[in-house]
TrEMBL record, chain A:
It holds the Pfam family Fer4_5. One of its GO terms (molecular function) is 4 iron, 4 sulfur cluster binding. Residues 206-236, 237-266 form the 4Fe-4S ferredoxin-type domain. It comes from the Bacteria. InterPro entries: 4Fe4S_Fe-S-bd (IPR017896), 4Fe4S_Fe_S_CS (IPR017900), Electron_Trans/Redox (IPR051684), NapH_MauN (IPR011886). This is Nitrate reductase quinol dehydrogenase, membrane component NapH. The chain crosses the membrane at residues 56-84, 129-147, 159-177. The lineage of its organism: Bacteria, Pseudomonadati, Campylobacterota, Epsilonproteobacteria, Campylobacterales. Signal peptide: none annotated. GO terms for cellular component: plasma membrane. Keywords: 4Fe-4S, Electron transport, Iron, Iron-sulfur, Membrane, Metal-binding, Repeat, Transmembrane, Transmembrane helix, Transport.
UniProtKB/TrEMBL annotation, chain B:
CDD domains: DMSOR_beta_like. The chain crosses the membrane at residues 15-36. Gene3D superfamilies: 3.30.70.20. This is Nitrate reductase quinol dehydrogenase, periplasmic polyferredoxin component NapG.
Length: 277, 271
């Protein structure tokens, strides 16, 4: 049991954060406990401090909206947080859809789908940046925030906070897509919000760090990682995982039995190359 | 001649092919997506919260955060879910289910962070102080279906009239003698488009199976006169003509030329 707790410590912390945030939103909407009201698109902390989704604002801006001061301030706060601290942590620590896609991935592992089902559909990891560009172009053309009009993240979070209804259907679609079509298909390939935060958090401080001397080449981290292309330095050299596509989920850190991986603050001064070599 | 052998797949060729493929897929995806958006954003029959800006701007500005929904004490507003056939995530209300109760402090409006709900449009300035005034809201306009309204049959019913929070102004009762019985009166509801806020309390109160008075969005409910009909008995009404852009003339093949021109050319006669 202790062993399991240790190898799932970040996972539990993430689920707690994800559910905690949703819980606060629900408490505000249904019971008037106004610590955090609204939803992931825009919210209000303690009826005072505004927060807003910077990607939604970017779309609204390209749709030609003159935005209010409150959302601009809120968007700036969130943006600053992910630029400086969090990287793509939104995806694994906040986004509720992460639970769905992780569930699909878990189901994949349980049924050995990776080994039993032939890969028929190929999707590149860069598709998200194309979708990101497309989102902004379409927002400009149609005059509405294009991704917000279809976003399963929005659908799910609104569904949980304000009532689910038929929202189950699109979420099930994402689950089945990730389960049967492409591994990590939504979060790792398509989602433009993930692409947005990949670009935003490229230089952020909190990083997974790799100690080359401790690595035993078991490759458990690469097996568990939803964005395994970011783990290129594993077994090669020490340093920080500096790709923006790393979601800081910490799965690699938990499964590493030789403690070769850990969370840390990126060292800009001595540069990452050559650390502890 | 086997030409295919000679084509070397250079990195440059690969790159160009990839770009072409990506561009093509983006065009395909973009067109499908645009098609969906254009359909999804047009919901002409949707009723928005008080102080909502024009629908076009509302679709741009609403960030779908649901803070107006949370603020509403009567659970009037809800955010469109899949299956509601309304633009996803945007707030709306259905008067027959829960109408707007026209709170004097309008809690749903000031919480809007993006400006989709405009406080100014529901405020009046008294003695230099801005004060909220819900009667300035124009969420929609109540429309009476005279065929199914039982008051037009001569049955006494003033449910909508009494339910209206701006009684005797937004809905008035018109008294008319009932010739059929000779000793009764018709008390028929007449909606005034200048003061009706579209709250829907009348629609909620209507006694018929399906409401005979229902709230429609303003631009659907209202007509437009145009500039060429003028009330001569109203002072200054002809000023509307100044905005009119020149004479409106219908051109046919004959009237294109002036009358003399057309009579003096005999081309058409001798054909």
């Amino acid at each position: 049991m202790r062993e399991w707790m240790r190898s799932h410590r970040f996972m539990m912390a993430r689920r707690l954060t994800q559910l905690g945030i949703l819980g606060l939103f629900i408490a505000a909407n249904s019971y008037g406990f106004m610590l955090l009201s609204g939803n992931l698109s825009a919210s209000l902390v303690l009826k005072k401090l505004p927060l807003a989704d910077p990607f939604a604002l970017l779309q609204m801006f390209s749709a030609g909206a003159l935005l209010g001061v409150d959302v601009l301030l809120g968007g700036a706060l969130i943006l600053l947080f992910y630029i400086v601290v969090g990287g793509r942590a939104f995806c694994s620590w906040v986004c509720p859809l992460n639970m769905v896609t992780d569930a699909a991935n878990w189901t994949r592992r349980v049924f050995f789908l990776e080994k039993t089902i032939e890969k028929k559909l190929w999707l590149g990891r860069t598709v998200r940046y194309w979708v990101l560009a497309l989102t902004l172009i379409l927002s400009f053309i149609t005059g509405v925030a294009a991704f917000e009009m279809v976003s399963p993240i929005g659908i799910l979070s609104r569904g949980i906070i304000f009532g689910m209804g038929l929202s189950v259907a699109p979420i099930l679609c994402i689950y089945l897509f990730d389960l049967f079509a492409v591994k990590n298909g939504w979060c790792g390939h398509i989602c433009p919000l993930g692409g947005f935060y990949s670009l935003v958090g490229k230089l952020s401080l909190i990083r997974v760090k790799h100690d080359h001397t401790k690595c035993t080449l078991c490759m458990k981290c690469k097996e568990i990682c939803p964005e395994k292309q970011v783990l290129g330095i594993i077994s090669k050299r020490s340093g920080a995982i500096d790709s923006g596509e790393c979601t800081n989920c910490g799965r690699c850190v938990e499964v590493c039995e030789s403690d070769a991986l850990s969370f840390g603050v990126r060292n800009y001064i001595n540069t990452n190359v050559g650390e502890k070599e | 001649m086997e030409t295919t052998d000679k084509i070397a797949i250079t990195p440059r060729r690969k790159f160009l092919a990839l770009m072409a493929q990506s561009g093509g897929l983006m065009a395909l995806g973009g067109m499908v997506w645009t098609g969906y958006l254009e359909e999804a954003k047009s919901a002409p029959l949707i009723l928005r919260p008080p102080a909502a800006v024009l629908e076009v701007d509302f679709m741009r500005l609403c960030i779908k955060c649901g803070q107006c929904v949370t603020a509403c004490p009567y659970h009037t507003l809800s955010l469109a879910k899949p299956g509601d056939t309304k633009p996803l995530g945007t707030p709306f209300y259905i008067p027959r289910e829960v109408p707007c109760y026209m709170c004097t402090d309008i809690p749903c409006v000031p919480v809007c962070p993006s400006g989709a709900l405009d406080v100014k449009s529901v405020s009046k300035i008294t003695e230099g102080v801005q004060e909220l005034d819900i009667t300035k809201a124009r969420m929609g306009l109540a429309v009476v279906d005279v065929e199914s309204c039982i008051a037009f049959w001569g049955i006494q019913c003033d449910a909508c009239y009494r339910a209206c929070p701006i009684m005797d102004s937004a809905i008035k009762l018109e008294y008319k003698r009932n010739e059929r019985t000779g000793k009764h009166a018709y008390l028929t509801p007449i909606v005034n488009s200048l003061t009706c806020t579209g709250c829907g309390l009348c629609e909620r109160a209507c006694v018929t199976e399906k409401a005979a008075i229902h709230v429609l969005p303003l631009d659907i409910a209202k007509g437009a006169i145009g500039s060429h009909y003028i009330k001569g008995w109203e002072q200054g009404d002809e000023k509307r003509l100044e905005k009119a852009g020149g004479d409106v003339t219908t051109h046919t093949k004959r009237s294109e030329k002036s009358a003399t021109d057309y009579l003096n050319t005999n081309e058409e006669m001798f054909k």
